[in-house]
Amino acid sequence: MNQRDIEVILARNLAEHLAMPIFIVNPFGDLLFYNEPAEMILGYRFDETGPMPASRWATIFQPVDSDGRPLAPSELPLMIATSERHPAHSSFSIKGFDERLRQIEVTAFPLIGQSDRFVGAMAIFWEVHR
Amino acid sequence: MIVKLWGTRGSLASPGPDTVRYGGNTSCVSVEGSNGTVLVLDAGTGVRVLGQSISPDIERIHILFTHLHMDHVQGLPFFEPLRLAGVEVHIWGPANASTSLENRLVRYLSPPLFPVRVHDLLSKLYFHELSNDRTEIGEFEVKAQMVIHPNPTLGFRIQENGATIAYLPDHEPALGAKGFPESAEWTSGYDLSEGVDLLIHDCQYTTQEYTERIGFGHSSIMDSFRFAAEVNAKELVPFHHDPGHSDDLIDDMILQTLTEFQPKFTVTPGMEGAVFTI
Fold it and tell me: What is the set of domains in chain B, with CATH numbers?
C-alpha cells in the first residue's frame, strides 16, 4: 500500500475539521478527498463517490461560466494549480446530484513539500448567495 | 544487524534515581551492519557514550538525524569521532526550504549556545539532505520519509539482508485523524514501518496526557501500540519516554497497555543499553 505524502494527510485531517468546503487532488489532478461541507454543495458523499480521476470529477459537476458556457477541465482553478503550480481563483457555477445550479467561488493552491516535492493541490470553495 | 539503544528519553535528559532502568539520556540509537558500517540515529545526549565505544581507527561514520530539535542534537559536539582528524562524518538530515542542514546545525554549534564551532572540528564533515528518499549507506538500504511532527521531521526504514527496522522516535500519526488508525494510505509513517522486524516508536504520553498535548508531535503509548498493529510490526520498542516519567510509571504504562491491547506483536520496552540482533 502506498501511503500518501504527509502534507496530503495533514491537509485531509485539517479539511475534516474545517467548516469550509475543501477539495484535495494529487499531482495529476485526480480527486483524493473532499470533506463534509463540500458534500453539502456537491450533493455527493465522498464515501459514495470515493477518489475520482480528473477527467471524471472535472466534468461530473457540470461547471459553467456566467454565460452558461461549459468550462473545460483545464479552466478550473484546481487544474490550474496542479498543471501550472500556482494559486488560482475563479467564480463559476456547478450542478450537484440534485441538478440545482449553484454559483461558487473557488481558490486553489498547490501543495509543495520540502525539497520542492509537488504532492498535489487543495481548493477551498463556497457557495455565493446573491 | 545489531541495534543498540544509547538514549531513550525524549525532550530533555533526565538523569536521577527514578530513571536508572530506562535511562535518562535523550535519543540515540546505533545500527551496525554485517560489514561494519555504523549508522547513528540521532545525536541526543546518549551519543556521548556511544562515541567512546567507537574505535579511533574508524574511517567513516554516518549520523542520521530525524530532525534538529535540541534533544536530538545536543550530544553531537561530545561525539568523539568528530574530534578525530581525518574521520569522515556523514551527516544526514531533513531538508528545509529556507535553510540548509549545515547552516541549521551551525546555529547550535556556535556561540553563544556552544563555544566550539562546527568548522573547528577535526573530522571531515559531509552534509546530505533528505526528504522522501532512498539511499544506500554501506550495506544498508535506507528509506527516509517525512512524518508528522512539528518542523521537517524524518522517519527511517533501514534494511540489510532482509532484516528491517523502522525508527520513528518523534511521531504523532493520530494528529487530526478522525479515527486512528485509519487506512494505510492515510497513516503517516505507514510505508516506513510496514512489516518491519523492529519498530522503535514514540510512546511519550499516557492516554490522559495525550489529550492535553495534542499537536506537540508525540504519541500516547496506546497509539504507538495501535500504529504497530496497523503496520504489522513484529516487535515494538516503545521509545522517547517523557522526561517526567519515572521507571515505575513507564512500567505501569506498558503493563496497562499490554493488558488492554493484547498485542500480537512482541513488546520490548526501550531501555538504555538494550541490544537487538536482527
Answer: 2-277 (3.60.15.10)
